[in-house]
Design goal:
There is one protein chain. Helix 13 links the parallel strand 11 and strand 12. The strands form 2 sheets. An 8-stranded mixed sheet has the order 8-9-7-10-6-11-12-13, sandwiched between helices. Strands 2-1-3-4-5 form a 5-stranded parallel sheet, with helices on both faces. It is 45% helix and 17% strand. With 410 residues, it is α/β, with parallel strands linked by helices. The protein folds into 2 domains: 143 residues, Rossmann fold (3-Layer(aba) Sandwich), CATH 3.40.50; 256 residues, Rossmann fold (3-Layer(aba) Sandwich).
Length: 410
């Protein structure tokens, strides 16, 4: 087996003796090469970026920065790296936290040599497989071949829009983004309502950074800059980019900058969900143009339906294909005679999801507390509708991808 197929390993533990024991355990396996030793989480992040290992053996309990936080940071910077957690705490909660952070395996300390080498070999094989797909391009210096491989796996931009204010776009966008966010499919929520956006409020987050911090540097973005600016929503792992704190700063974001930002974020996130204002500002138009999917939101009131009809006419004239639109009726009240079926038939665009009017007060309570309803009350009918919308989004995007591939082959 050639040298380049050796599994490169970084060992991370705050006890020097433990690091040395592990290094000695591995030195007799000719297909495993220890490329570095780190004493804490911060040092692990630095060495991982320098040495580009295939596998990291990571202790959990360390001073300064624990192994789970370091794991999450490293996986964002170098997604192909596989991390095996080592801990004396053989606890299911530790294991769950480690896996959610992106760990590949979890071993109780001290592992036997056979157990350790087996885990490293398996993780190394997965790392090489991921690296071959081109994911290493996210960590920096992307080669042309890596760009080509990565282009096939770009994330998707999902714009939530209603031509009538007050339709509940922010509620839909926030809860949808939370549903789409998983350890395997990272999601970002972008506030495209630049003057008076409420995404941060809906998630009970303070506006530390905003869209402006990335659009002003859109020509020099890299994953580290994005990670530094994004708000990490602790309860879900969702990354959030709020609107500027001061409304007058909205004019400092151009439509070109905004669309370039969204296109760049596709290289980092599986899903980029954009909340928008009802006004067709240049920024909103730019988001609609680059969107892979548009969640078009209406309510049962006549002004909302009328505005939605006008938007669909405009979309047709602009070349936005109807299969890129998922039509949603929010706050559906069965007691009102205007049904989703009638509206869909009238506008020649089927309403695929009806989110019921919440008369339990749970939705309002979730907004007050800043906790998305899909987290707080999963069995609520509104939550169930959002989960259905989430599944529909995934399925529609897969169908669009398959259609695009078929067209490309022909």
């Amino acid at each position: 087996m050639p040298d380049q197929e050796k599994t490169r390993v970084l060992v991370v533990d705050d006890i020097a003796e433990t690091r040395d024991i592990i290094r000695r355990q591995l030195q007799f396996d000719s297909m495993i090469e220890v490329v570095g030793l780190a004493g804490n989480g911060r040092e692990a992040i630095e060495l991982a970026q320098q040495t580009k290992p295939d596998v990291i053996l990571m202790d959990i309990n360390m001073p300064d920065m624990d192994g789970i936080v370091a794991t999450e940071s490293i996986r964002r910077k170098i997604p192909y790296v596989q991390i095996v957690i080592l801990s004396v705490q053989n606890d299911s909660s530790y294991m769950r936290r480690a896996m959610l952070a992106g760990a590949r395996d979890f071993l109780a300390k001290p592992p036997s040599t056979d157990e350790l080498t087996k885990a490293i070999r398996q993780a190394g094989a997965m790392a090489r497989e991921e690296q071959a797909k081109g994911y290493q391009g996210l960590a920096g210096g992307t080669s042309t071949s890596a760009h080509q491989a990565l282009a096939k796996r770009l994330g998707k931009i999902i714009v939530v829009y209603s031509p009538k204010g007050g339709a509940g776009c922010t509620t839909v966008a926030t809860n949808l983004a939370v549903c789409l966010q998983t350890p395997e499919t990272k999601a970002a929520l972008i506030d495209g309502s630049l003057q008076f956006g409420d995404v941060a409020v809906f998630l009970n987050e303070h506006v530390k950074n905003s869209v402006l911090d990335l659009t002003s540097r859109v020509e020099e973005l890299d994953p580290e800059i994005v990670e530094d600016v994004m708000i990490n929503h602790a309860a879900t792992g969702l990354h959030v980019l709020p609107a500027p704190l001061h409304p007058e700063h909205a004019i400092d974001v151009t439509s070109e900058q905004f669309s370039k930002l969204l296109e760049y974020l596709k290289h980092i996130y599986a899903y980029v969900v954009v909340d928008t204002t009802s006004y067709l500002t240049e920024v909103v138009q730019s988001a609609l143009e680059v969107a892979d999917l548009i969640i078009l939101v209406t309510t049962q009131d006549i002004p909302s339906i009328k505005s939605t009809s006008a938007f669909l006419t405009l979309a047709d004239a602009s070349g936005i294909k109807r299969n890129r639109i998922i039509f949603v009726m929010n706050r559906y009240d069965r007691r009102i005679g205007i049904s989703p079926e009638k509206v869909g038939e009238s506008l020649r665009q089927e309403i695929l999801v009806s989110i019921p009017l919440d008369d339990t007060g749970q939705l309002n309570n979730s907004l007050i507390r800043g906790i998305p309803l899909v987290i707080q009350q999963k069995i609520n009918l509104v939550s169930k509708s959002i989960f259905s919308l989430c599944d529909l989004v995934r399925n529609r995007l897969n169908k669009l991808d398959n259609l695009q591939e078929t067209v490309a082959k022909n």
